[in-house]
């Protein structure tokens, strides 16, 4: 009796983009120096950007870990509650701003990530870089950072894991200060939610909800 063994199909190594969209669905790119003209020329609008502040937790592709980031970065925001890049066109499985996509997008080769990884943390654009010297919103960004700096969320996470609940009273004050600042400035400048997320990133209470979900 012969046994009919199926030969497993050999997959050829990937050498080109298959346009699956996974990299865009995983989140929009951080902006780098060469992307500044895209913002200044209005090809990337401020309300399509979100700020991740120094101290927030984020995935570090170099270590493949979630860590507090040691610098501020500004990236293209997600869609609704998802991180999927807001410029990703799911119906066409493509980028809706292809000719004006940020420099990091041009390096995306999931089968060969060296070029993308080399950009991590390098020549990043901050909110102040993007706004420039004369923008009227510059002053509120500086005021916000003075009054409401983002705590090191990795440290906060570790303290809560160690049941050091004494930090909760400090966090409570920081959350209130953060919310009061936003309420005042959003009303004074008549900001949309997307503009608020560019200027101030996500509110502290949301960042804490993110880590509380992981602690339980
Ligand atoms: S680079 Fe890779 S993950 Fe991104 S769309 Fe192409 S095949 Fe998909
Ligand atoms: S800007 Fe375009 S290429 Fe870059 S992540 Fe968004 S959809 Fe993808």
Provide tags for this entry:
single chain; 216 residues; mainly alpha; two-stranded antiparallel sheet; two-stranded antiparallel ribbon; globular; disordered N terminus; binds iron/sulfur cluster
Q: How is the topology of this model organized?
A:
Elements: H1 22-25, H2 36-40, E1 49-52, E2 57-60, E3 65-68, E4 73-76, E5 88-89, E6 94-95, H3 103-106, H4 114-119, H5 127-131, H6 138-147, H7 153-161, H8 167-189, H9 193-200, H10 204-215
Helix pairs in contact: 7-10
Bound molecules: iron/sulfur cluster (SF4) (2 copies).
Give me the strand/helix succession. Answer: HHEEEEEEHHHHHHHH
Unreliable residue runs: 1-6
Number of strands: 6
Helix content bin: 25-40%
Largest sheet: 2 strands, antiparallel
Average pLDDT: 92
- Structural class label: mainly alpha
Structurally, the number of domains stands at 1
Taking strands numbered 1, 2, ... along the chain, how are they ordered across the largest sheet?
1-4
Q: Which small-molecule species are bound to the chains here?
A: iron/sulfur cluster
End-to-end span in angstroms? 58 Å
Q: Determine the strand fraction and express it as a percent band.
A: 5-15%
Radius of gyration equals 21 Å
């Amino acid at each position: 009796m012969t046994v009919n063994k199926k030969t497993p199909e050999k997959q050829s190594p990937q050498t080109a983009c298959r346009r699956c969209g996974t990299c865009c669905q995983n989140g929009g790119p951080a902006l780098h120096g060469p992307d500044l003209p895209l913002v200044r020329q209005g090809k990337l609008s401020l309300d399509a950007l979100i700020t991740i502040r120094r101290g927030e937790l984020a995935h570090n592709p170099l270590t493949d870990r979630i860590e507090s980031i040691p610098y501020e970065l500004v990236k293209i925001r997600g869609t609704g509650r998802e991180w999927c890049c807001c410029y990703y066109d799911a119906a066409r499985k493509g980028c809706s701003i292809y000719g004006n996509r940020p420099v990091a997008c041009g390096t995306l080769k999931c089968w060969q990530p060296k070029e993308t990884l080399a950009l991590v943390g390098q020549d990043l654009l901050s909110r102040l870089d993007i706004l420039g010297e004369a923008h009227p919103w510059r002053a509120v960004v500086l005021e916000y950072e003075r009054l409401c700096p983002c705590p090191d969320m990795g440290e906060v996470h570790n303290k809560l894991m160690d049941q050091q609940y004494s930090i909760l009273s400090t966090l409570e004050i920081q959350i209130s200060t953060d919310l009061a600042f936003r309420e005042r400035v959003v009303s004074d400048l008549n900001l949309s939610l997307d503009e608020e997320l560019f200027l101030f990133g996500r509110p502290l209470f949301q960042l804490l909800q993110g880590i509380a979900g992981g602690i339980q």
